Predict the 3D structure of the following.
Amino acid sequence: MLGFRQLVFKPEDFKEFGDLRALPILTKAIIRDNFEALQARNKQDFAPRRNQTSGSTGQPLVFFWDRDAHSCGWPNAWRAFAVAGFQLGDPLLILSGGALMPKVTPLRQRIYYQLMGITQLRAYHLSEEEMAGYLTYLQGTPGHPKYLYGYASAAYLFARYLISRGASVQFKAVFTTAEVLPLQQRGVIERGFGCRVFDTYGNNESCLAAFECEQHTGLHYAMENAFLEVVDERGEPVGEGETGRLIGTNLENYAMPFIRYDSGDLGRLTREPCACGRGLLRIGNIMGRARDFIYTPDGREIHGAFFNHFEPFYRTPWIAGWHVLQDRIDHLVVTIRPDGEPVEADVERMLELMHAGLGEDMRIDVVYDSKLHTTPAGKQKVIECLIEKPGAGAGKRD
Ligand SMILES: [Zn+2]
């Protein structure tokens, strides 16, 4: 890793955000390899806390952040919730895995949650029995929290469950987080909970946090906490409004500065003013992990968005969830979580459409399992590719 001195970058040269481009993009691999060197010598002045990512990309990344940087999380969430009428102290239901909810909730957090009126519902491999229990709780508690905050896939699964059982529960708003929210899932969640969905985005390491306003046209990002760039594969800025890698510079963390940090996510930046009047720029078209690709035998790269928006998954009543795994260049395993008896004709139609997108040379096996693969934090991974990008050699994947 090169230091500022070798890069001929003097802090006094820094006049505007564009000057940051003199510095290389910071990746998880660079941070792991230079863990000590990247910590400020006076880090103790900022009451640093040890933290780690939830490990959605495999190995969790350990890092330090200031007490102030840590304190940005909930205020950003509250600002997001306020768009839908939420006021500080209103009861809140959290439906998630470890990213919002550790396996063992520390006493301090339990007290905090109680004081804040937060009720936690676990979303790890959300089973029929659990959903039945959650429904009983909601129907038997007229004063239940009217705002739900949770993983998009869990909210979708539960909403599907409510609709298929003809159950009626009324919420004021659902806030989704941690996963890509396809349009089709949004529609189902809105029907199931009888309210609008507001998507949110967060990347702790770079303090990049974003929320949807009442216009639902992209996510306003917290420019007070982070500076955002969108770059292409070579690290060059993309054209206005084009999709690329989201690169965040953390403006809060002095203990371990994250400058031009690659969030690993794809999205685009919109500079046009929003009809809501907020001055915060918007992130649009958040497509999920930049490295979520399926490679085809005919040499194409298909981004995971293909499966995020794959219509048969949403239009087939007995399909509740899915996971796509590539273990060879010409082989996929599609795991389906069934809700009811699988129908052979539906599977055939689904395979036809997959072959139309991926080519006839791709072999596709369909298996059924009520437990889909998730990350250690319980987030749903739509696609997982176990092979290296063809022709890329044994590159380091982070
Ligand atoms: Zn807006």
